Amino acid sequence: MSWHPQYRSSKFRHVFGKPASKENCYDSVPITRSVHDNHFCAVNPHFIAVVTECAGGGAFLVIPLHQTGKLDPHYPKVCGHRGNVLDVKWNPFDDFEIASCSEDATIKIWSIPKQLLTRNLTACRKELVGHARRVGLVEWHPTAADILFSAGYDYKVMIWNLDTKESVITSPMRTISCHQDVILSMSFNTNGSLLATTCKDRKIRVIDPRAGTVLQEANYKGHRASKVLFLGNLKKLMSTGTSRWNNRQVALWDQDDLSVPLLEEDLDGSSGVLFPFYDADTSMLYVVGKGDGNIRYYEVSADKPHLSYLTEYRSYNPQKGIGVMPKRGLDVSSCEIFRFYKLITTKSLIEPISMIVPRRSESYQEDIYPPTAGAQPSLTAQEWLSGMNQDPILVSLRPGSELLRPHPLPAERPVFHSMAPASPRLLNQAEKLAAEDGWRSSSLLEEKTPRWAAEHRLEEKKSWLTNGFDVFECPPPKTENELLQMFYRQQEEIRRLRELLTQREVQAKQLELEIKNLRMGSEQL
User: Where are the annotated WD repeats, by residue (predicted)?
Assistant: First the structure.
């Protein structure tokens, strides 16, 4: 019998959670005390939104990400709902647009001004009215622009098209009425062609959202699911819930066969809901328990045993809810691969927790940052409703990199002003050098690129992040510690640019030598 080692090789085996220091937390935040099982927090690279306590209706706070420290007790709120706010979600393609749903049976779309709020925001951009009872969940479509899903206590999932001029929309594009009880969670696959839901009847359903038909339904009695999640392109589902003996557990399913789970694993005997989060770029699964301070994380693979336990982040402060930063907002200079925003009701505190891969090198780590979903939709609302599917448009997280287009533009032929003929090897080396840097020479751009493309590149440059912060809109430091951190970041950036410049000088000299050799060869001929 051959012996199989118990330990497996993994670059994420030593990932650890690093909580933010006190001055980088958000203090004195009146976090909601609602018992609804939701995240109550939504984050993007500009803002953090958190559902708050409010008398006479529902409200939530929108705090600029850099505005850490103690919050002003009179800080303006977004308060247009007549009932408690139950869920908030940022538009993945517009960092200044957010959707909220409430007990007043409405969904509202808000446009957040780029400058700081000076008074309460009560006027929404759009109001969606269609549910007969309170609305508990909202989800944006992952690839199509202006498509929003909502789930209400009337057991219906509604699909809304926001690409209209109407400020009040009363009729959804589709209504899915296959559920027999309250819907507990919704999740999309990578291109948004499938929707997975869990219901209070403890069944998992995989639905074709455009047709409204149930493709798969789990009737397995041994696992009562509360939350469900698509695992990227693995064609698998992960659900969290309870076993027959009321132990909290996670279960792995084949999305094409929900008769029996591929894997069941009991975690503990606590009663709080488990929130799963999956990072498709690193194939890591994070399981966050409501009411406890722990975050467990696993590595997921397509082969058995499918789920490999890595380790656990532990804290004494229980979390009421949790928010997650999109990958494009992470600090790649510190090898940060995930970031949570933990709501601690007992301290009125929001605590960022960074999941970090320990690396000695300070350069950009290409192996832990593959191309990830960016902030541009790959489909319009009408294209998706007509039946088209498209994977997300990918971007590189390397500082200063450009968009990775799914349909690349026609290649531009390099223009050399030298009279000597250029070899194919030389052309390939020059194109490779330009592709690595993500730039072309200014003379080529002026000759080959139309004005609209140049303006589009300028718009993209405005959103470039360097070392995790925006070089054009960086807030001034407020404390001596922040000033030192900014100084060290700038020193690191200068060092990195010097190394890059040295590499480019060496490559330029190699190109000059090759051109010289070609000229000498042509003269001899």
Answer: 78-112, 128-170, 176-217
Q: Is residue 321 part of a domain?
A: yes
Name the residue among 316, 320, 311 with its Cα closest to residue 289. Answer: 320
pLDDT tens digits, one per residue of 23-33: 999 999 999 88
Summarize pLDDT for 74-120 with one digit per residue, the tens: 899 998 899 999 999 999 999 999 999 999 999 999 999 988 788 89
Q: Which domain holds residue 349?
A: 16-373
Instruction: Indicate whether 416 belongs to any domain.
Output: no
The number of distinct structural domains making up the chain is: 2
Residue 44, domain member (yes or no): yes
Pick from 150, 126, 153: nearest CA to 139: 150
Q: Which residue has the tokens 């589902």?
A: 237
No. of helices (H) and no. of strands (E), the chain: 5, 36
CA neighbor of 249 nearest in space, from 261, 259, 258: 261
Distances from the Cα of 82 to the Cα of 55, 79, 101, 153, angstroms = 10, 8, 11, 17
Strands 41-43 and 26-27: unpaired
pTM of structure: 0.75
Q: How far apart are CA 253 and CA 495, in angstroms?
A: 48
Q: Any idea which of 108-117, 159-168, 210-219, 471-480 has the lowest mean pLDDT?
A: 471-480
Give the SS3 label for residue 104: coil
List the CATH number of the domain containing 36: 2.130.10.10
Average pLDDT (144-162) is 94
Q: Which residue among 373, 394, 418 closes a domain?
A: 373
Dig out the tokens for 147 from the structure.
């498509």
Q: Coil, strand or helix: which one is 196? A: strand
Residue 290 tokens read as 């409501």
- Look up residue 378 and give its two tokens: 């790959």
Judged by DSSP in three states, 334 sits in helix
Single out the residue in 340, 373, 406 at which a domain terminates: 373
One domain for residues 214 and 356 = yes
Position 281, amino acid: D
